[in-house]
């Protein structure tokens, strides 16, 4: 029997599992049957992927940034400069890749450009500890959706909206609102994620936030539904960007991450296909957009999950085989190589006069 090899000592496999779930969930939202999630109707439960998968993806992005910048002990000095440069270069490459995928004109809301902007905006906050980051997440979760609504209303009469405004305010993944998920992920990444107590708390706290966000949104929507614009303010619909959706979906993402961390160490082999998918998420996400472009509009006209199951099986099998035999995914390898070379060249050239031409520090 093939056993997953140790591809990276100290790697948190549960984070890869969570990222894998996020990518597969986004696939389901794109090519699965269009069903609105209703907890009281089990036949609609597959609809839970809509909106929540992309939020999980963004939250895990925050964790990844934390892992690249020191985990629970944020890096300082030259290491901080090196980490910021690596993250910025990744943001540039991901933004460019997102632009290429948009050119395919699939009709899918491509998340990569928004994702890249959030990467870049994380740079001033890399020295913060988890407490401060969670405070920022709370502030953005409560205030950013309301500010975003006001900005959208103000822009409704504008003759045209710039690409930057679309990324930050009016797009499907408005960065102003989604910074709440980025800060949540950064805060989670600054915790000791090897601790069983921390993992359990993520599940409990995330579950409570999900219940509070969705529950209050539904309750207040029914009680105050007759007020003007109440539906916009109190909705918990996917991609609505309301306070209650942000809190509910952010809590949902936190709980899923905690569960994945708890499960991954106990069931490494059964979860390895998900782990492999998450470890090469950029490749998997990009190729599934290419596949949708090749299929055409038929991809969005599904009445069942037959097409999605095909995507699912091919993805899990291909990612598993690639990960076991070749390691990092092709796009991940490219991203790491570009970031490493640029970082080494920039940092080492600046350090050369002081180090007699010898590089200092470690590279990623």
Task: Characterise this structure.
With 364 residues, this protein is mostly helical. The protein has helices at residues 13-31, 52-68, 77-102, 112-121, 130-155, 163-170, 175-189, 196-223, 230-234, 243-264, 268-279, 281-295, 306-325, 330-355. The protein has one domain (13-336). 68% of the residues lie in helices and 0% in strands. Helix 3 runs antiparallel to helix 4 (112-121). The protein starts with 12 loop residues before the first helix and ends in a 9-residue tail after the last helix.
How many β-strands, per DSSP? Answer: 0
Task: Compute the CA-based radius of gyration.
Answer: 21 Å
Largest sheet: none
Approximate strand percentage = under 5%
Count of DSSP H/I helices: 14
Characterize the overall form: globular
- Report the uncertain regions: 1-6, 350-364
Compute the number of structural domains: 1
Helix/strand-derived category reads mainly alpha
Mean pLDDT score, rounded?
86
- Work out the helicity level: 55-70%
Order of helix and strand elements from N to C terminus:
HHHHHHHHHHHHHH
Q: What distance separates the N and C termini? A: 32 Å
Layout of secondary structure:
Layout lengths: L12 H19 L20 H17 L8 H26 L9 H10 L8 H26 L7 H8 L4 H15 L6 H28 L6 H5 L8 H22 L3 H12 L1 H15 L10 H20 L4 H26 L9
Helix pairs in contact: 1-2, 1-10, 1-11, 1-12, 1-13, 2-7, 2-10, 3-4, 3-14, 4-7, 5-7, 8-10, 11-13
Task: List the main descriptive attributes of the protein structure presented here.
single chain, 364 residues, mainly alpha, 14 helices, disordered N terminus
């Amino acid at each position: 029997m093939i056993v997953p090899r140790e591809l990276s000592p100290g790697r948190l496999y549960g984070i890869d599992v969570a990222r894998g779930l996020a990518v597969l969930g986004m696939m389901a939202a794109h090519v699965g049957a269009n069903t609105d999630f209703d907890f009281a109707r089990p036949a609609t439960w597959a609809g839970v992927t809509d909106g929540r998968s992309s939020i999980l993806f963004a939250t895990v992005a925050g964790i990844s940034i934390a892992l690249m910048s020191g985990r629970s002990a944020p890096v300082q000095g030259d290491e901080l400069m090196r980490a910021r440069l690596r993250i910025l270069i990744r943001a540039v490459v991901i933004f460019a890749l997102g632009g290429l995928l948009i050119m395919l004109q699939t009709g899918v809301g491509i998340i990569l450009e928004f994702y890249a902007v959030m990467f870049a905006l994380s740079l001033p906050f890399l020295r913060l500890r988890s407490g401060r980051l969670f405070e920022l997440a709370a502030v953005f979760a409560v205030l950013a959706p309301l500010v975003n609504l006001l900005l959208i209303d103000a822009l409704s009469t504008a003759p045209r909206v710039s690409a930057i405004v679309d990324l930050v305010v009016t797009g499907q993944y408005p960065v102003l609102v989604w910074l709440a998920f980025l800060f949540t992920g950064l805060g989670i990444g600054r915790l000791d994620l090897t601790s069983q107590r921390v993992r359990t708390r993520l599940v409990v706290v995330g579950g409570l936030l999900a219940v509070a966000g969705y529950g209050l949104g539904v309750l207040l929507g029914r009680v105050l539904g007759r007020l003007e614009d109440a539906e916009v303010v109190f909705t918990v619909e996917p991609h609505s960007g309301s306070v209650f959706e942000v809190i509910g979906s952010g809590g949902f993402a936190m709980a899923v991450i905690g569960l994945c961390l708890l499960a991954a160490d106990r069931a490494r082999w059964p979860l390895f296909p998900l782990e492999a998918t998450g470890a090469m998420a950029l490749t998997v996400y990009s190729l599934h957009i290419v596949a949708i472009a090749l299929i055409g509009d038929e991809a969005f006209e599904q009445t069942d999950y037959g097409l999605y199951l095909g995507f699912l099986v091919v993805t899990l099998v291909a990612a598993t085989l690639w990960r076991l035999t070749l390691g990092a995914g092709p796009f991940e390898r490219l991203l790491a190589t570009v970031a490493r070379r640029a970082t080494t060249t920039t940092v080492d050239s600046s350090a050369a006069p002081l180090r007699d031409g010898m590089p200092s520090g470690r590279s990623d």
